[in-house]
Design a protein that fits this description.
Blueprint (H helix, E strand, L loop, with lengths): L9 H20 L3 H7 L6 H7 L9 H22 L4 H29 L10 H4 L7 H9 L10 H23 L4 H14 L6 H17 L9 H15 L1 H4 L10 H18 L1 H7 L2 H8 L1 H18 L7 H37 L1 H15 L1
Length: about 375
């Protein structure tokens, strides 16, 4: 169950699956007016405030789950590059096939749902659903396809813009991680502080790319991080849940509230470490449900939001709770098929392209021909 230097850390797939499920629950609940108001910092009924303005927000903290994705991506892409020589010429086409083919398919799926179920912005809908009542334009459609300027037709695509940027800059991040390997924790702290500085400076690239750098720093120090003992693990886990939701239950006028983003990033990083270094977390995340969610997490992330908005358009506004009840199972089923018929073939194609660009296939074929000639 423990990590092996040359192997994949399976529990991180489970963490990715849990994070994707939280994003699904997040968007499903935003179709309910009171939860949408809470997310937009508008008045919330007392009967719902305990789910919005408390650490229980962790169960539907979609934005914070995306930050876990960023740290996790920084880690899982940097770690292999630090452990072996990276063929960057083969990496780039492979990586972009892996990302863009599922994205393009999800954009066309979102377009079909957009045309089949018009976004009306009808009275009684949640403020979040009403925001999706935007006209379709060629420029917006191309912005979605390229990830240069994603629209609300499939709004989770905004995070893929930063995934692409990080993928382009991965050689730089790997170099930073390698150069600061001995003091990786200093790099992680500086990156978390830079991420926080991005908010007042209105530099999104600084805010989000610094989160990836936190993950890269953890990858650099992975072999030096000891296994987390059980009692300490529980303390860190509970502290992480409190920290990742702190923006929802700590008053913004409290001293030190300016460092909320630092705390959230540190909590996301701690969850990644616990997933690979704390045995109770490993056991849970290697379970059937988290691993299954992990295998289709990218597909679930890409397809769920247009489904949630479409269902909300069809459900009577007098019964908003029907939307998440319908959305969650439907999105899971669609994600299974999307993973099987879109994401998996894209992954296979990416591997094939990588092998051909690096010459692996050619070398293997030449080896077979030599062996055949000998016999």
């Amino acid at each position: 169950m423990r990590d092996r230097p040359a192997g994949r850390i399976g529990s991180l797939d489970g963490l990715r699956g849990v994070a994707a499920a939280i994003v699904l629950v997040h968007h499903s609940l935003l179709t309910i007016p009171s939860f949408a108001n809470g997310n937009l910092h508008l008045p919330v009924p007392d009967s719902r405030s305990w789910l919005v303005y408390s650490p229980l927000h962790a169960f539907w903290a979609g934005g914070e789950a995306v930050f876990v994705f960023f740290v996790l991506s920084g880690f899982v892409l940097t770690l292999p590059a630090l452990r072996r020589t990276q063929d960057w010429i083969a990496y780039f086409p492979s990586r972009f096939i892996r990302l863009y083919l599922p994205v393009v398919a999800s954009v066309f799926l979102a377009l079909l749902l957009f045309l089949a179920v018009p976004r009306t912005g009808a009275p009684g809908q949640s403020a979040w659903v009403a925001r999706h009542a935007e006209p379709l334009s060629l420029g917006g459609f191309l912005g979605d396809l390229t990830l240069l300027a994603p629209t609300r037709m499939n709004s989770p695509l905004w995070s893929l813009t930063w995934e692409v940027a990080f993928s382009l800059l991965l050689p730089l991040f790997v170099s930073i991680a390698a150069l600061t390997r001995r003091h990786w924790w200093i790099t992680a702290i500086v990156a978390a502080l830079l991420s926080t500085a991005g908010h007042p400076l209105r530099m999104q690239w600084l805010t989000y790319l610094s989160m990836f750098l936190v993950g890269s720093a953890i990858a650099a120090g992975w072999e030096r991080i000891p296994a987390v003992k059980r009692p300490l693990g529980w303390v860190l886990f509970l502290a992480s849940l409190l920290g990742i939701t702190c923006a929802w239950w700590i008053p913004s006028d409290m001293p030190g509230a300016v460092f909320e983003s630092t705390v959230i990033t540190a909590a996301a990083a701690t969850l990644v470490v616990l997933a690979g270094k704390w045995l109770p977390a490993e056991r849970v995340l290697l379970g059937a449900v988290p691993r299954t969610l992990g295998r289709m997490s990218f597909s679930l992330y890409l397809v769920h939001e247009p489904i949630a908005v479409s269902v909300a358009q069809l459900v009577p506004t007098a019964h908003p709770w029907l939307t998440p009840i319908i959305t969650i199972p439907v999105a899971l089923v669609v994600a299974v098929f999307f993973a099987r018929f879109v994401e998996l073939p894209a992954h296979r194609l990416a591997k094939t392209v990588s092998k051909r660009v690096s010459g692996t296939d050619g070398g293997a074929r030449r080896g077979r021909r030599v062996a055949e000639s000998v016999h």
